[in-house]
């Protein structure tokens, strides 16, 4: 997990591990990433080897800590095509199917959004 975060350092201002616990083949990982556009990504990922089961939540917020997107696999949205994987867009009640369900995919999505914003903000020099 740490290697994945490090591989996206180009879009990060800072990051902090809030919890990292390994017991046998099970683990808990929680981290907070500050993105260069002043947004924040809160990561929660768990793997329980005895079940086996993986649980995750990637909660992306703007600089005012308002939800942009949260990807997770909680099992309460059974009508979603990609169940249990889904995303909440800008509110907990706006739930959509999602094929994004790994930290790499989330960071790649955020990286693409930031890079496309930066490209739009760059303007060609004005001719005089």
What's the helix-strand series? HEEEEEEEH
What spatial order of strands do you see in the largest sheet? 1-2-3-4-5-6-7
Provide the residue-averaged pLDDT: 92
Rg, alpha carbons = 17 Å
- N- to C-terminal separation? 51 Å
Number of domains: 1
Strand element count: 7
Global shape: globular
Unreliable stretches covering 5 or more consecutive residues: none
Residue share in β-strands: 35-45%
Helix content range: 10-25%
Offer a few descriptive terms:
single chain; 128 residues; alpha+beta; seven-stranded antiparallel β-sheet; 2 helices
What can you tell me about this protein's structure?
The protein is of the alpha+beta class and 128 residues long. The chain has one domain (2-114). It has helices at residues 2-7, 103-121, and strands spanning 12-23, 26-35, 40-48, 53-61, 67-72, 86-89, 95-97. A hairpin with a 5-residue loop joins β6 and β7 (95-97).
Could you give a short description of this structure?
This protein has 2 helices and 7 strands; from the N terminus they run H-E-E-E-E-E-E-E-H. It is α+β, with helices and mostly antiparallel strands and 128 residues long.
Show the helix and strand layout.
Elements: H1 2-7, E1 12-23, E2 26-35, E3 40-48, E4 53-61, E5 67-72, E6 86-89, E7 95-97, H2 103-121
Antiparallel strand pairs: 1-2, 2-3, 3-4, 4-5, 5-6, 6-7
């Amino acid at each position: 997990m740490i290697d994945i975060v490090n591989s996206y350092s180009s879009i990060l201002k800072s990051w902090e591990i809030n919890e990292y616990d390994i017991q046998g083949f099970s683990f808990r990982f929680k981290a907070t990433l500050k993105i260069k556009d002043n947004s924040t990504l809160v990561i929660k990922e768990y793997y329980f080897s005895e079940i086996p089961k993986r649980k995750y939540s990637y909660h992306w917020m703007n600089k005012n800590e308002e939800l942009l997107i949260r990807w997770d696999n909680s099992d309460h949205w059974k009508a979603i095509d990609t169940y249990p994987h889904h995303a909440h867009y800008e509110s907990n009640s706006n739930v959509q199917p999602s094929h994004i369900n790994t930290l790499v995919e989330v960071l790649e999505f955020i990286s693409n959004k930031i890079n496309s914003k930066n490209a739009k903000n760059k303007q060609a020099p004005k001719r005089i």
